[in-house]
Predict the 3D structure of the following.
Amino acid sequence: MNAPHSKSPAVALSLVFAICVSLSGCNSSSSYEYAEAPSTYRSLETESSHAEEYDPGYDSYSDIPTPYPGLYQHDADSGWQNTYDESRVIGYKDARNYVGQDVTVEGTVSSVIYAGSSNGSPHFFNMGEGEFAAIVWSQDVADFDQILLHNYVEWSKSGQPITVTFRISGTVEMYEGRPQITARDGSQIATLSDDGTWYTFMSDESIDNLMRQRYQ
């Protein structure tokens, strides 16, 4: 069974790292160490065994709560996918018109930056020329697939354009004249795969933690 992240975004990431290995000056000062991106897709048999461990007779992850259920639903049963309310999806250039509202912002990121030396050690997902940003703070990073975060940071550092379409859901705020969304859960950020589905940045571990909290 192919993993969702083995589709075109991960292939492109692999090519970028191959280029980086052959070039000097591509080493990261980040505290991360590169590791091959693991599959975030589980077989239904694996999901069923975890479900039985947490709650005998419970056999679906599809009702795991999301931070913004009015914008999207998280469907872990089908491979950590999100399905969206398309009426609430906007382009990143329009985000400043929705301050204080819950929306899903769509676009290609211009860069993904890990500001490890800054207060709160945030990750920034930037779109356009300062027209929109999503922020993942270090205190919330455990609820994200950290390998994916790291790989997108490295892709950005390589100088190769990021060609993956993102959707970022949440409440739009303004900070120093720029609209932004704070993502506190991996399901708030998703990328478009070749088959037209949206795969989230939620990790297996964060799914497991949610299940333990809900069905302990």
